[in-house]
Amino acid sequence: QVEVVESGGGSVEPGGSLRLSCAASGSISGISHTGWYRQAPGKQRELVAVITGAHTINYGDSAKGRFTISRDSHGTTLYLQMDSLKTEDTGVYYCNFQGLELGLRDFDAWGQGTQVTVSS
Questions:
Q1: Among 17, 29, 44, 113, which one is least packed by beta carbons within 10 Å?
Q2: pLDDT tens digits for range 5-46
Q3: Residue 26, Cβ neighbours under 10 Å: how many?
Q4: What mean pLDDT do residues 104-113 have?
Q5: How far apart are the first and last CA of the chain?
């Protein structure tokens, strides 16, 4: 079983920065796709940024130029550096890991979510 735990959310004023972290643990054989998603109040969950299995980085339109996704060399810790935050960035941010468990079963694991509030 794979567990994903996020940290680093909080409240910040517009123009500020936050850094989110997310760690995957458990019976992991390999990790492919990793990403950050967010859900604003009353809206559907949307893509923020992903690192694909081919190590390609893609950003959602709202994140381009302001957010940076990265992960450690083991691939089990994922980060999201968010700069120049706007009020519309407010929402619950979720981390996602996909890959293979020991025993070669696919897994698709989500964190519990961390709240980001941008307000003056």
A1: 44
A2: 999 999 999 999 999 999 999 999 999 999 999 999 899 999
A3: 14
A4: 94
A5: 41
E-strand stretches of 1-90: 2-7, 10-12, 18-26, 28-39, 46-51, 57-59, 67-71, 77-82
CA distance 118 to 9: 11
CB–CB of 86/16 below 8 Å?
A: no
**51-57: long-range pairs with CB below 8 Å, 24+:** 51/78
Structure tokens at 42: 């009353």
Contacts of 44 (CB under 8 A, 6+ apart): none
Q: How far is CA 105 from CA 54, 100, 102, in A?
A: 20, 5, 7
- Quick one: tokens of 118? 């941008």
CA 55 – CA 10 distance, rounded (Å): 29
